Amino acid sequence: MSYQEKKVVTSIVTGVLVLAAYCIYVFSRYQSGVVAPGDLKFWALTILIFIGIGVVASIVIQIVFHILLSISIAIKKKMQDEKCDDKEIEKEVEAEMIEDEMDKLIELKSLRPAFLIAGIGFIAALVSLVLKYSPAVMLNILFISFYIGSLFEGFAQLYYYRRGLKNG
Amino acid sequence: MAKKYEISNNIRKLRFFANEMTQQELAEKAAVSRQTIIAIEASKYSPSLELAFRIADVFGVEIGAVFECEVKGE
Question: Could you tell me the pTM of the whole model?
Fold first, then answer.
């Protein structure tokens, strides 16, 4: 598995963890009867907090991932050649983590399924209002569909890295 | 119906004749990742014109010696 694929897998795992944490938190609060479906302030605040948690978690996990990857590259290089110096290791790490035109193209192409799912979620949220569900349902559909959209962006990236991008 | 163009390449052969240059070395010289070179070599990715010229430049040959195009049906 290449560096790019590992990076995508890390961000997918982060996304799944944050989404699972949100679902567990909200479900347990709702089940205990503390929150009323019409309490929009609670839902807005919870979603805002989890957006913040998602951003912080993805930054922290990416930093940890890069540190661990650099260490593993350094160990591998040292095992291959004991006499190699820090500059050689640094060069190896940079070469491994380079981002080029294929990565940018894959990133752009993967946005399409993400927007598609987010768009479907937006329409579903509007439909839920038309069907007279609580606005909290609409908020949850919006939040979850955006999150699932970003997860699908990751899956699409993995797919393109495996299958390749023929003719741009 | 539009013609279909199948792009193939001779990178593996050129690497062999360039003193068995590794994919990593080629990637470094062309300023891309090894993953991209692997994808191009396996015809899983069609590079931009700029990158195609850069790869040809690494081997010191014309772009036509690296990439070939076959027209498939009409």
Answer: 0.81
